[in-house]
Amino acid sequence: IMLDRDHQEKGYGQAALTQLIKRLQSRPDCQEIRTSFVRQNAIAEYFFGKNGFQRIADGLEGEIVMRYGG
């Protein structure tokens, strides 16, 4: 999920992520939900963390990897 700066902090990202998680959880073939982002993006880490994602690894290119835990 990526929103233009002009549309951030209006609840759009929260709403989109909530709907995306619901849709993915309804799929029998979805066993895990992950996201990744550059290490310097503290806002993304906070956003996903407050929405049920836990940091699980550092990616191959130095990004942060998080998994949804509900």
Uncertain stretches: none
| Structural class based on helices, strands and sheet pairing | alpha+beta
- Tell how many strands the DSSP assignment holds: 3
| Cross-sheet strand order for the largest sheet | 1-3-2
Mean residue pLDDT: 91
Total helical elements: 2
**General shape:** flat
Assembly type of the chains comes to single chain
Beta content comes to 15-25%
Summarize the structure.
By secondary structure, this protein is of the alpha+beta class.
Word description of this protein:
Helices cover 33% and strands 21% of the residues. The chain has 70 residues and is an alpha+beta fold. Strands 1-3-2 form a three-stranded antiparallel sheet, covered by helices on one side. The protein starts with 11 loop residues before the first helix and ends with a strand. The mean pLDDT is 91.
